[in-house]
Amino acid sequence: MLVDRICRTELLYQTIPQVYGDESKRLPGLAQEDELMGNNRWQGASWATLGDSITAAGRYQPLVQAELGFAKVDNFGRGGCPMTAGSDRDDGATVYMGRSLEQAYDCLTIFAGTNDYRLNMPLGALRPIGSAFDNHTFFGAYQSLIEELLTRYPLCRMNLWTPLQRDKDGYDSEKRNDKGCLLADYAAAVQSIGQAYALPVLDLYAVSGFNKLTLDSFTNDRLHPNQEGYRRIAQTAASFLAAI
Asked: Which DSSP category does 107 fall into?
């Protein structure tokens, strides 16, 4: 079974990326799309993923790899960590993990935001390209990371994913955090950043199907995806990546 082959390594505060091997089985319902789209641009390509525990768990990556044919997948996710600098989990902040990339990848996914919301990280505001950015705000850290990586690796197909809806520890889609922000505000920030830099955005907050009515079916704890949740993420992501 494919699920038995999914890497279940937990990456809390580790620094070594996970690397995945080949997978032979396909996600249901996507083979026909390949026929319509012709050759898959990601066959034999490299992919890096940045983010929090949902990325660090390493469970959506093998499914997407099997579907799209990535030859190399490196996982730089860090459990419990936000994008933004300045929390008590600063070593694993995505803004710093992203800067540690030492090679060019054909595709790079940034999937962050839920911990910024939960840890009450300041949202900040979108600033013009080339500005001085404050890494202690979500906008600032995100823009700073993107500009550094695009400067180093301009041919990389960078793509941004918004956070999934959640309902854990009293933090859900209706609650404002201590900074007065909704989770949707962080998702909207990712959309704005993508537009500013002409980067494709996968709006999982809006299109994943994760919501208060379905979280028990897609997650273990109304935050972290279960097997079906990772399948849903992978199906949505594979279609998105195939189109960019």
From this structure: E
What would the pLDDT profile of 83-93 be if each residue is shown by its tens digit? 999 998 888 99
First vs last Cα of the chain: how many Å apart? 29
Single out the residue of 1, 34, 67, 87 nearest to residue 237, CA to CA.
Answer: 67
CB 125 within 8 A of CB 67: no
**Tell me, what DSSP letter sits at residue 219?**
B
Q: What is the pTM of this model?
A: 0.85
146, 127, 121, 100: CA torsion to nearest 10: 20
* Options 3.10.50.40, 3.40.1390.10, 3.40.50.1110, 3.30.1330.60; CATH of 12-243: 3.40.50.1110
